[in-house]
Design goal:
7-stranded antiparallel sheet, 374 residues, alpha+beta
């Protein structure tokens, strides 16, 4: 499975100038290629290369960066075309434009990592910048060392220089699971397992609430310092959520591995529909945070050889995990589950997690029966 590791670069002033100039040149080149594509109606990577490669070289781009610029443009048109076809955007009326600091992909020939030293060497318009320092956590460094593969994107965002590296974990042999650990994702409890372990979201929700209040107060003043403060808080909140997600996913995967179980998760696409919230709560539902938790669990599970199944989340919160009876009235409030048919009572999130666990077991059995038949 693929995932990304994002690290922050700490370039010297000279290196920073070279990086800025590199992005500027690559994106000027991308805009040129984009206009050529638009005017000549040539959008395929290979064909575009025939039309533009020479010109990019004469602008001062080396062979690899020039090819990446062309591919970036071709990919952007492919994406738009797919979106138009899917009906989620209008057709273009002018060539795609690239911001002067838009992300630029670098492959292994243009970027090499010295992970123990926490430095990279990267191609720039001012020659190769060597020993550019980066910062990352130890787990990120281990993931990079073990799984980094292919391209990384150089990004300049909010004044920060970032490298976003693609990692690919090969599928390990998954241990045939002895049952499934069901995980219910929510707001009050970020994650609840069918064993009854609840990872409470109080602290995270409190941070979000405070930031929301601050945002409301500061939005009136549109000063630079207010904007800076908000940006700072938003980043701190994201970092905090990330840490929380790491801790929770680690605990869940460790528990599943210890008990030789697989992990059953709700199909994340369904979460937004399932969680119907009144307005004040809706803001606390950051779908990216759920998606991230799901990714962390999947990634750590893959690494540990723990099976993961995704189940259809419909009625997991209204259905009785003992008798299967489905009724809205089974759940009189946020925390309580009490079956109107058989009388089974449990914390609502634990009941949902039990439903998820049993659906996981069924889903696994069905997909493996198909494997055996094939
Ligand atoms: Zn029941």
């Amino acid at each position: 499975m693929k995932f990304v590791v994002q690290v922050r670069l700490f370039p010297t002033p000279a290196q920073e100038a070279a990086l800025a100039d590199t992005l500027r040149l690559c994106n000027a080149a991308a805009n040129l290629v984009s206009r050529t594509a638009w005017e000549t109606k040539v959008f395929r990577n290979y064909d575009l290369r025939l039309h533009t490669y020479g010109e990019l070289k004469s602008m001062g781009l080396s062979a690899q960066p020039a090819q990446h610029v062309i591919k970036k443009v071709a990919d952007a048109y492919t994406t738009v075309k797919a979106q138009v076809k899917a009906g989620i955007r209008q057709p273009l009326e002018k060539p795609i434009g690239f911001r002067k600091d838009a992300a630029q992909p670098f492959d292994d020939r243009c970027l090499s990592w010295q992970i123990p030293d926490r430095t990279v060497s990267i191609w720039t318009t001012d020659g190769r910048a060597k020993g550019v320092r980066f910062g990352c956590s130890d787990p990120q460094a281990r993931a990079l060392a073990a799984y980094h593969k292919g391209e990384s994107d150089l990004v300049h965002r909010d004044g920060l220089w970032l490298l976003i590296a693609t990692c690919d974990v090969p599928d390990t042999d998954v241990t045939d699971p002895d049952g499934f650990l069901g995980v219910d994702l929510g707001i009050a409890n970020i994650a609840t397992t069918d064993d009854g372990t609840r990872h409470a979201g109080n602290a995270l929700n409190a941070v979000r609430h405070r930031n929301r209040e601050l945002r409301r107060r500061l939005q009136a003043k549109r000063t630079k310092s207010a904007k800076r403060l908000l940006k700072h808080r938003r980043r701190a909140e994201a970092r905090y959520a990330r840490d929380v997600n790491h801790v929770i996913s680690k605990s869940i995967v460790t528990e599943a591995a210890r008990t030789s179980r697989g992990i059953a998760l709700e199909d994340l696409g369904g979460i937004r529909e399932r969680v119907r919230l009144r307005k004040p709560q809706r803001v606390t539902l950051h779908s990216w945070a759920f998606a991230q938790l799901g990714q962390f669990i999947a990634y750590k599970a893959t690494r540990a050889g723990v099976a993961v199944v995704y189940i259809d989340p419909r009625y997991t919160s209204q259905g009785c995990s003992t008798c299967g009876h489905i009724d809205k009235k089974n759940r009189p409030d946020q925390e309580t589950f009490c079956c109107t048919s058989c009388g089974f009572a449990e914390h609502a999130d634990v009941n949902a997690a039990r439903n998820i666990a049993s659906r996981g077991a069924v889903g696994w059995a069905v997909s493996h029966a198909a494997d055996d038949a094939a």
